[in-house]
Each structure stands twice: as C-alpha cells, then as structure tokens.
Amino acid sequence: MKLDGTDGDGSGDGCYSAGDCSGSDCYGGGSGAGSGGFESSSSDVNSIRFVLLSEGCMKHILSHTSPRDACRASLICKDVKFFANSDAVWERFLPSDYQEMISRSVVPVNCSSMKELYFRLCDYPILLDDGYLSFSLYKQNGKKCFMLGAKALSIAWSNSVFWRWRSSPESRFSEVAQLLAVCWLEIKGKFKPSMLSSNTAYAAYLVYNIGPLSCGLDFPAKTLVRHVDGTEDDDDDDDMAMAVVYLKPQNASTLTERIGGVPQKRADGWMEIELGKFYNDKLEGELDIRITETRELRWKSGLVVEGIDIRPTNEGGL
After folding, report:
1. Which one in 38, 41, 264, 312 has a CA-CA gap of 20 to 30 Å to 288?
2. In this model, does residue 150 exceed pLDDT 90?
3. What is the value of pTM for the model shown?
4. CATH H-level superfamily of 126-312
C-alpha cells in the first residue's frame, strides 16, 4: 500500500454523505463579531468550544465514533473536517491486521489516505494469496468480510465430467463452477474464524446463479454452519441440526411462511442464500460450512457457484 502521509480531503467515493460548509463558519454561522464570524448563540458557543479542542483530543474523540459519524462530523466546519478526515482517525476504523491483508493482495493497493483505503476496501474487495479468497470491509463499522471462491471449496465430483470450471465477467474470481449434471449435490467450505473480527455476529451465504436450462434445483437442500475443533465427525450429517433452503423456490410467498426466507438478489448481480449464522467470540479451530442435497437422487443441472460469502449480520456485535 502506498500512503503519502497526508490526511484525506473527504472527497473520496463511498462516503455516507457529501457536502461541505462554506467559509470558516460552523452550522452556517453569520457575520457576527468574534472568531470565525459566529453569531452569539448557545449553539454557536458550543461549536466554538468544539473546534477549540486540541488536535490530539479531537482525533481521539472522533476515532472512537464510527465511520458514519466521522463523515457527518466532517460537514460541521472546515476545522472539524480536517480532524475527521485525518489518517489518525480512519486508521482506527481499519482492522488491526489491515497491513497484513494488503500485503497478501494479488495486486498492489495504492491509496493516498487511510480514509480512501477504508472505502477502497469497502467497495472493491481484494483477492488474497492465490486469488481464491477475497477480503473486504463492512462499510458501517469496518468489520472484516471474506468470500471463499468456488476453487477454495470442496465440491463433490467437481474434478469430473459433472462440473465445468469457467470464467465469468460478473465474478470477482478467475473461475466459477458450473454444474452440468449430478445427482449428489454437496458443497463444503472450511474457514478459520480467527481471521474474522472478534465479538461479531456473522452469517455465511452461498453466492450463485442459475442458468436458463436448469433442472432439479427446486428440491429442498440442507445447510449447516458450525464451529469444529477437530473432535467432531466431519461427515455424519444425520447427527447434525441442519437448516432447509431452496435454491430455486417455486412459490416464494409460501416458502417465506414455511422456512422464513428465500434467495435474495445481490447488488453485484448474483443470488445468495443464507446457510447459517454464528457468533465469533474469538473462536479457534475451523468453521464447517456446507450445503447438500443427497436425499432426492435426481439429476440436477444449471447451478453456477461463485463462492461462500462470510460477512457480519445486522443483528448484533456491530
């Protein structure tokens, strides 16, 4: 990562709100006498006191807020904007290991400020290591998000004539997995929770699309997300409490009442289905994530798998 050591100017893309105060007045201060042209009012006096705080104190206060609050604070006045956009503030919003993540990127990540870097990681996931894992930030709070690409997953029969690996212009990864024909559908992923943000509620999602000539995907599939420490039986599905989902539901309204959810369209054009949730309280070991359909041994085709997305939920730990 290339940083020029200067503070951001607040003009980067991805900010929660835009705009600026003209002149040096806070809250549209008038032409009254006094420093900065503030009129004599209780709100203006409070504004003056706010901007007269020391630089270190201002940055300390702002760094203990949130990215959204820092963006809003930058609209108060130019003095506050300088502090709210500073590298000292925005580096606190980044994960403690952000430099390690950037060093593992397959392409250089060049940003002129910590604020620019923050929104770069929010809006444009970076590929790590061999390109089969992506890393990004949850914009609201800077929590870590990862997606396991299809190549990083264990897909039954994927090295045979039943699946085809191909490129997709819509995918962040170099290859996706296209199901040609299979009766036994089994997709598994392993991930170390120690890489995630601690004390955070997460959910895992299968990211996929369905081709026009699909078949057999309207049967219920079972999903599971669990923490394992190496002592559990990895393959005994019958002893595990698994949820039920439909990759291609026939009646969305009926399914919503019956199972509480259906696949959702993502902003990037893919579909996603929730596989399960967990709370990362500094977990060790591994996460076992899977989706299977091995009961109805009928031919299935048309499924295109991009990967498994692991990101914070809106329900807690945020």
Report:
1. 264
2. yes
3. 0.78
4. Galactose-binding domain-like (2.60.120.260)
